[in-house]
Every structure is written in C-alpha cells, then in structure tokens.
What we know:
Oligomer: single chain
CATH class: Mainly Beta
Number of domains: 1
Strand content: 35-45%
Radius of gyration: 21 Å
Strand order of the largest sheet: 1-26-25-24-23
Distance between the termini: 40 Å
Shape: globular
Amino acid sequence: xxxxxxxxxxxxxxxxxxxxxxxxxxxxxxxxxxxxxxxxxxxxxxxxxxxxxxxxxxxxxxxxxxxxxxxxxxxxxxxxxxxxxxxxxxxxxxxxxxxxxxxxxxxxxxxxxxxxxxxxxxxxxxxxxxxxxxxxxxxxxxxxxxxxxxxxxxxxxxxxxxxxxxxxxxxxxxxxxxxxxxxxxxxxxxxxxxxxxxxxxxxxxxxxxxxxxxxxxxxxxxxxxxxxxxxxxxxxxxxxxxxxxxxxxxxxxxxxxxxxxxxxxxxxxxxxxxxxxxxxxxxxxxxxxxxxxxxxxxxxxxxxxxxxxxxxxxxxxxxxxxxxxxxxxxxxxxxxxxxxxxxxxxxxxxxxxxxxxxxxxxxxxxxxxxxxxxxxxxxxxxxxxxxxxxxxxxxxxxxxxxxxxxxxxxxxxxxxxxxxxxxxxxxxxxxxxxxxxxxxxxxxxxxxxxx
Length: 451
C-alpha cells in the first residue's frame, strides 16, 4: 500500500507542477477592535469527570514525567531555538480555556472556538479535557466573555481505539486521544478536524461523538506518525506514515450550504522515501473534500503551495462557494521591535516573527493548485485610532504570535483573527510573559470582494 500511495502522490504532484499560482497582491488592514482573554482563564472539569482532571499539565515537564504539585514548574518558550521564560508556572488548577485553534463566526460578535489538545503532544496531555466554546467579544471594553463550554465524550464507544478514560462510563476525551484543530457547525452537529489520525470527528450539540472518519487520499488511507496503527519500528527503517507529527488537519472550511467540508493539512503529504509533495519546487498542502450528507470523501482535492518550505497554515474558512481565507505563517514569535541588538538574552528576541499572513484564495479545478488572489500582512496592521489593548505603538499593531490559528469573516469588509497561545509555552506579545488569547477585528476594505 505504501508504494502504491507513493506513486499516486508523485503522479498528482507532477501533474500540478506546470500550474503554480501567481503572486498575491498585498492589501492593507486596519484595526477595528481588539479583545483579550487572559492566559490564566480556567474552567472546572465536569462533575462526572475523574479526579485526575482537577489539575492539568502534570505530564508536561521535560520527559513527560509526572509532576503533581501545582505551579512547581516554570513555563518556557523556545520558538526559533531561543529558550525564554513565560512567567507562568504549571501544573494548573482546573482546565485551561487557552489554545483557540479554530473559529467560526456566529454573528453578533459571538464566535465558536475550539480548544486544542492541551500541552502540544499526545504524550503530555492525558489530563487535559477536549472542549469547544461559544465566546462573545466586547470590542468596547476589549474583553471576551465565555458564554458556554462543551466537553467531548464518547459514552457509546464510537472511537475505534483505547482512549485515556476507557474504563469510565462517561469516557471524556483528552489530549492523549485527539488533537482537535478546526471546527464547523453543520445543521445540529459539529465536525472537527484533528491531527493525530488525522481524523474527522462528528459530534452532537452535547459533544457526544457520533462518528470518527479515517482520511482517504485517492481512495487510500493516509496516517500520521501519531495514528494508533503506526507503531515504532524495532530498528530504523522506511517511513511508515504519510503525515508528519503535528501536520494533520489544521484548518477546515465548509461550503456555504454545509454540503462539503474542506480539511486542509498543516504539512505536505510524504512519499515513499519521505519526500514532501511539492508544486514547482515549493512544498504544497492538500485541501481535501468531504461530503457531509454521504459521510464520505469525494476523492477531489486541491494543492495549497506554501510561500516558503517549512511554513505552516493556521486556519481555513470559505467566504463563498469557491473563495476562502487561509492563514500562512512562519514558526517564529515576537515583535521585531523586541529584536536583540547584539548579545542574545532572555530580555530580547533572537529571531522575531516575520511572516504572518491571511491569504484570499480561490479553489479552481480539482487536482491543481489554488489561486492566491491577495493577502493581508498581520505584522503590519494600521491602528490610527489607538484601539490596541496590548502591544501596538505609533499607529501600528503587529500580531507576532508563533501560532495564529483563527480567521473568519466578521461582517461586511471585516474579518476576525485570533492566536493559539500554547499555554504556558508561548511568549510572542511580550518578551517574558505568557501569551493571552487575542482576537483582532480588522477592516480590510475590498479585500473580500477581490476575484
């Protein structure tokens, strides 16, 4: 199967090489609102959850060894290879709301957001519960209010592998089971794209799992390094997976009528020798198509070429039947204003963020690259009215976060963008302070009308 899939991937990538997209025109963005949810925003676990979940982050120390005492370990960030303290200690009392990794506008300044797997990996997040939220942004006060939280659970044993709470009746899902990164409401259900499988999950309004769907490309199953069926070989050998760790479904859009989902991988699929899919020499990511009524993959896909190898995408939402918004980013954090001038210390940024963009794209003929129409530079947001709640100076605001994983339309000529703060492991807004969750409301002129 591995060899056949490798041939399939190589053939499709070769066919796409002659159709790479043209450059996308830059468009200015202006800050229209800025709301902040403090980093240390916690919720209690459900009353029926095991006592394990009264605290979280107990396995997030180096080596994933258990540490029970709350606040006994210092959080650090190492974006760009530079280790800096974040000023926040763990384990944490309660469950962190942090880490928004997917958004959908509900209208009226309300947003559906998804908390990711917890502390960044399967091995360190078994005491972190999976959940999604409805938030309300108050742009006047600069605050966010959590309206409700829904926890994921699998009482009907739909999940086809052993979960962390296997022996309980409620079977709450944890960050050791799935890494949810994107969410879409379709009818009275929610669809979630995740990275460990990568899988699609269908859940009801209570968070009860209804379906777990394997990923198919060209009719064949593709798996990540964290898929339950991918085992560590007894000796070094050929690559046995097609999706790198933490490179599964990061963004997932839906068609305006909800008939189709468009999950987008964060990294390129790998061929038989571990080579990434590419378009004209640039790494390219797959956008797949899933039929929600049939509950099956359509077999159609598109390529999203990255502007530079090693970049990642953060989110994806459609704005009409053929056009959508995609966040593309580098793997750095911190404002250029905080760049080190000479000696590198914990009080400056050795390699600040440089590439954080929102692209307007168009899906064309399946099997070909998308067309990048225009882009917004999130490192250069105009703020003439001084609306920035934190950061910002001289009429400008940047959005210098390592992971920016939320984008959607938020009204005529406006979009909303949010970060994933990787609590307690990111410090992009301030040199020595753990990032909060931020949403920025941006006026983008005719950006959304461009074709």
